[in-house]
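Hi C.,

You asked whether I'd gotten around to modeling the 113-residue construct. I have! Everything is below, sequence then structure, no commentary in between.
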Amino acid sequence: MKHSITGSIALTGLLVLSGCGEPESGTVTEKEYEKAYSSTTQDCRTTTTTRNGRTTSTTSCTPRTIYYPECWEVDYEDEATGETGEDCVSEELYEALEIGDDYFKGMETSDAR
């Protein structure tokens, strides 16, 4: 019985989450090229130690660099649901698509008008 309740809760959660997210297709509403860039942040940790009744704290930081590749971004909207999405596509597909064209995930350049 415990397993079936857990399974029901998990299935319900999955069904709720499946309604969220980006649509699989829609009408192209915007196109934007984003060049590659990187961003560096610091990951810091503070260690506190107590020895002989005396507390000391030491903070050490490590730089963390995140690289974001270039992106030919296509924004689209499912007109039936009003849900919006965005995808990075190939440069060729980006050039082939126009605002107002139909778009679907996994689309190839040959699928564009």
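If it helps when you're writing up: The chain has one domain: 22-111.

Thanks,
B.
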